[in-house]
Amino acid sequence: MASAPLSDKSGVTPRAGGRTPSGLVQHLPSLVAIGLLAMALILPGMMFESDQRPTAVGLGPAAWPRAMLLGLAFFSALWIARDIWALGGAGRRPTLSMPAEDGEYHFGKALIGLVMIVAYGWLMPIAGFSVATAVFIAIWCLFGGVRKPLVVVPVSLIGTVALLWLFMGLALMPLPRGAGAFDTFSIWLLRATGIY
Amino acid sequence: MTTRFAKTTLSTAVLAGALAFGGAATAQTYPDRPVGMIVTFGPGGGSDVMGRTMARLMEESLGVSIPVSNVGGASGNAGLTQLRTNPADGYTIGTLISLTVASWASGLGDNKPEDFEVISVIQSSPSFLFVPANSPHQTAEALFEFAKANPGAITVATSGYGTQDDVTLKLLADAGVTMENVPFQAPAERYASPIGGHTSAIYEEPGDVGQFIKGGQLIPVVVFSDKRHPEFPDVPTSAELGIDISGLDNYRSLAVSAGTPPEIVAKLAEAVATATASDDWKEFCSSTYTCITPVTGDAAQAMVRDFRALIAEQLAN
Amino acid sequence: MAALELLGGGFLAAFEIWAFLTIVTGLLVGVVAGALPGISFVNAMAMALPFTYVMEPTQSMLFLGGIYVGGVFGGSISAILINVPGTPASLPATWDGYPMTKRGEAKRALTIAVTASATGGLVSALMLAFLSAPFATFALKFSQPEFFAATLLGLVSVIAIAKDQPIVTMVSLLLGIAVGTVGIDPLYGQARFSFGVPEMESGIRFVVVMIGLFAIGEVVDLLATDRDLRPKKTGGKAIGAKLADILGVKGAIARGTGIGCLIGMIPGAGATPGAVIAYGIEKQVSKRGDEFGTGIDEALAAPEAAKNATTGAAMIPLLTLGIPGSAATAIMLAAMMLHGVNPGPLLFIMDPTMVYTIFAAMIIANVLMIGAGIGVAQMFAFLMRTPPAILAAFIIVLSVVGAYGVRNNIFDVYACLAFGVLGWGMKRVGFPSAPLVLGVILGPLAERYFLTSMANSHQDWTVFFTRPISGTIMAMALIFMLWSLAPAIRRLIRHIRS
């Protein structure tokens, strides 16, 4: 989702079928600014763990992050001020404009997609790269509309073995093998595929 | 605290699982699959070259491949955490170097000397002060004289505050030789700074700046050790100049997770010993000025423990 | 003359069958790896390191050099075709390359990109071959204040490329810099913002942030909008690039190449800042500056030329001084050291054949890249005919492997996924993510250059302005900022008056 440099203006000319957020909804992004301002003000106090020794030489390790967070706080405040000004007059648009979509955006689908991706990352150290990947590819394909078992099963199994061979066999990356029984299984699989 | 607790439970579970299912990993058959080598720094540094050379040499005597993986970050602690949390079955070896041990003393990471079983300390080198070829101070006496007369005028490129480098400069300052510590995080920039004339001197072990010494761009003026370095017999020790600073040598070792079966550690130690006895290794260590008689067993363990204590004591002052 | 003779010998050596095949293999590996979302050329070079054990020293350098040249370009293939930059340096290629793909001009975009990249790379390789020695001496004059000034110029460029939204851009950029401060600080060895989690001390690497923000967000959007990645039918046949198109952007390529050659020599900076600065300057120079971001040829060509122009330039300090300026050149140094070869002035005297074979190989690799780039791009276009769901699943897997491969650490995968969720949310509210990534890249550099400069000048901040080179770059950065903010300032004044 590389946003174009002019992301907030270019490519958002509403097209047929697209919807542009309107009313109070378009002011929702202002909440981001408020959140960031709060964060920039709170974080400097949480920079170090209590058991660390303070250092006295030079500017110290805190100077740079402090300055940057101060800058962040300043520009977030500026952003909030500009959005308050935008609220005050008709025709004034808030600083950040939500992008209009070419067509319909299924939020439910996006959320399920995110959950699947995060679950994949969570599963990987537990079940090992091979099992997690095979399961992930299969479920993602099923959810994405590819339902033929004759497609899904080979794609997920052959794909996983190919990736395993490429990354663990050829590139010698120590991808997670999983814990307990999964580790035993991974070692067996790696031996069966000639990688170990 | 909860995360640490969760980690411990998790690693215990992993360990239990490995014991229950991975019964094949016995000392008799070890090693029967690739042994992973964790290099605790990124590609291109001294640890990386040491780890990769060692892996290549150990492959011959162990008879399995030893794939190297760079797990950099947190002064080497990220890789050591991985080594510690992997099953203690000898299938993961890691590099453990003095810089990381020193970082424990300044409160980094959650690793302790007891978490690891040092197989062998295989490289060690004292550090030197080097001056660029066109420096007005070509000897340690001249350099120290000038620093005494003009406190802080001499700038020394180092790897950071709170490191062995910093400790050495502090000890020099206590003896009246006050020089300014200028930390450079990137080693390459550190080496370039005295050569480009941006700092007056550099604190470094000779192996890391070997090509600049051979090229005549950097001149060693003093070694921080109790005896002169055999490769640089003309360079005086700091003790000869009246400031006794030693015991802060940079060493590199190989380690496994504590709790690895002793027979497996013995097998690994044997492979390391064979490797360090090879001509290949001797050529490598002499080109990096780091040849030592390998230190193994309890002596190696004590070396790590004592070094941590020494740095902690120096930093507390 | 001696240089020409030596280079001739280098060409002869590089055209020997095994040497040549090594260059081609490296190039192809680089382009493919660069094009795979998540796998950057640095990853690919690190993975290739074990293979160089069995090679001759020169051959190992040809292999890594090929991967380097090919990989720096390869990232643009996925950037142009699927809006996911394969490497951070290809970020600008998504801004104008992808809009061209959306218009059905993918082939034209790729041709412009590969031509610009190859030209930049070739000029840079020639510079490496002929001007190494004088440039090496010049590079030594640069120290931390100069590096800081150049990084600041990079940060200013980030504002310049998005002048319509200076406030939000600044917020995003500073947020990125703040993310970059997580972990052990560069000078004091103290952990910041670790919140008691030891893994946080390792910090957050920019590649991980980039993969999360771009690859994962894009894939989720793909799922949610039922968008099709298959090449668009534009009625007629696919529009390719004509010679006139290339000639039309020759100014942009020349400017990009110049910027890339200069930035490449600065340690730490590398391809990404080079590309971003070139994009920012091109936006100011070009007549069509206001249309940048909608698929403009110059906007694609300039950063493409710049990023590959950094490749040869980055090897100058490596070969002449033995000082690697970037992760890629550090891996090359490792390969040389593993063979007992120490780069530096002595290498030119002791083994000139090796040095000049490397020079020749860099030149050959950049010429061959046009073919390799187009070939791999066609393969990718073919891959994109597979159903989007299957493609998306593999992009995610590759992204996760790429994040893991940065440091072989599962924590980086978690961080990547967290940024994936964040990036998706940012896109939904229209918060720009590119400045954040650039902040994570440039922030840590700026910090350590700044702090080391201060330590080396007894904490006197005027050092940045009193040193001649540093002062000049600072002045350039200031002028550049005012120049790029001028329209916004004029608008503000008009607003206040009315």
Beta-strand portion of chain A reads: under 5%
CATH class of the largest domain in chain B: Alpha Beta
Number of strands of chain B: 11
Strand content of chain B: 15-25%
CATH topology of the largest domain in chain B: D-Maltodextrin-Binding Protein, domain 2
End-to-end gap of chain B: 29 Å
What is the CATH architecture annotation of the largest domain in chain B?
Answer: 3-Layer(aba) Sandwich
Q: How would you classify the helix and strand content of chain A by structural class?
A: mainly alpha
Mean pLDDT of chain A: 82
Helix share of residues of chain B? 40-55%
Structural description of this entry:
Chain A has 196 residues and is an all-alpha fold. Chain A has two domains: 23-52 and 60-88; 107-192, no CATH class. Chain A contains five helices and no strands. Chain A is flat and about 65 Å long. The two termini of chain A are 38 Å apart. With 317 residues, chain B is an alpha/beta fold. Chain B has two domains: 32-124 and 250-316, 3-Layer(aba) Sandwich (D-Maltodextrin-Binding Protein, domain 2), CATH 3.40.190; 128-241, Periplasmic binding protein-like II (D-Maltodextrin-Binding Protein, domain 2). Chain B has eleven helices and eleven strands. Chain B has helices at residues 2-21, 46-62, 77-85, 98-105, 140-149, 164-174, 187-195, 210-214, 262-277, 279-287, 297-316; strands at residues 36-39, 68-70, 92-97, 116-125, 128-132, 155-158, 180-183, 201-204, 218-223, 250-257, 291-296. In chain B, strands 2-1-3-10-4-11 form a six-stranded mixed sheet. A five-stranded mixed sheet of chain B has the order 7-6-8-5-9, with helices on both faces. In chain B, helix 2 links the parallel strand 1 (36-39) and strand 2. Chain B is elongated. Chain B starts with a helix and ends with a helix. In chain B, 58% of the residues are buried. Chain C is mainly alpha-helical. Chain C has one domain (2-230, 239-497). Helix content of chain C is 75%, strand content 1%. Chain C has 21 helices and two strands. Chain C has a two-stranded antiparallel sheet. In chain C, helix 7 packs antiparallel against helix 19 (434-455) and helix 17 packs across helix 18 (410-429). Residues 233-237 of chain C have low confidence and may be disordered. Chains A and C meet through helix 1, helix 2, helix 3 and helix 4 of A and helix 5, helix 8, strand 2, helix 9 and helix 17 of C.
